[in-house]
Design goal:
two-stranded antiparallel ribbon; mainly beta
C-alpha cells in the first residue's frame, strides 16, 4: 500500500491514450503544436510537430514528425527542408516565418509503420512515421513539377479536344 499524498481525482486528468501504431494509409490531419528543440547530440535543432487525425475511426489520435532543419548532416537538412516544403504546399502557405502559421490547417499525411528498434540501449516498439504530406482534394494539387494552385486533379478536356468516338491525331492509323 502506498499513500498518494492526498486524494487523486481521476476526473481532472485525461487518461493515458492508445499508443499502438495506426494502420498505414492516408489520414486527414492538422498540426496542433510545434517547437524547435535541440537534437539528441546537441549539434543542431529540429522542428517537432504534433499532428492530430481529424477524420475517420482514428480521429483524435496523434502522429508526430521531426524535421532536422539545423544539423551538421547536409542530407538530413535537405530531407527536412523537402518535408517542410511538402507541408507548406499541402496547406497552401508557401512562405512562413513561424511554424505556428501551419497550425490547424488540414492536409493529408501518408502514414507508415516503423519497425521496433533499439536506440542508445533502449528498446522501442513499432511506431508511426510520416512518408509525405499532400493537399486535400480542394483543387490544389501538389505534383512532381511543383505546386499548381487551383489545378484540378481531373481537368476538363480542352475545347479543341477530339469529339467522343474520334481518335486523337497521334492515335489515327494511316489509311
Amino acid at each position: 500500500m502506498a499513500f498518494l499524498g492526498g486524494t487523486f481525482d481521476a476526473t481532472a486528468v485525461e487518461p493515458q491514450g492508445d499508443f499502438t501504431p495506426i494502420a498505414p494509409g492516408e489520414y486527414k490531419v492538422q498540426i496542433t503544436s510545434s517547437e524547435m528543440v535541440d537534437n539528441s547530440a546537441k549539434t543542431g535543432s529540429m522542428l517537432k510537430l504534433e499532428l492530430e487525425i481529424i477524420e475517420g475511426e482514428s480521429a483524435g489520435r496523434k502522429v508526430y514528425d521531426r524535421l532536422n532543419l539545423d544539423n551538421p548532416n547536409d542530407k538530413a537538412v535537405e530531407i527536412a527542408q523537402r518535408t517542410l516544403s511538402a507541408i507548406c504546399h499541402a496547406v497552401g502557405k508557401l512562405s512562413v516565418a513561424d511554424s505556428v502559421e501551419l497550425h490547424m490547417l488540414p492536409m493529408i499525411a501518408v502514414v507508415k509503420v516503423e519497425p521496433g528498434r533499439t536506440h542508445n540501449g533502449k528498446d522501442y516498439g513499432p511506431s508511426n512515421g510520416i512518408k509525405t504530406y499532400k493537399a486535400l482534394g480542394n483543387g490544389a494539387v501538389a505534383t512532381g513539377g511543383g505546386f499548381k494552385p487551383g489545378a484540378a486533379s481531373n481537368p476538363a478536356p480542352a475545347a479543341d479536344a477530339p469529339a467522343a468516338g474520334k481518335a486523337s491525331p497521334w492515335k489515327r492509323q494511316a489509311a
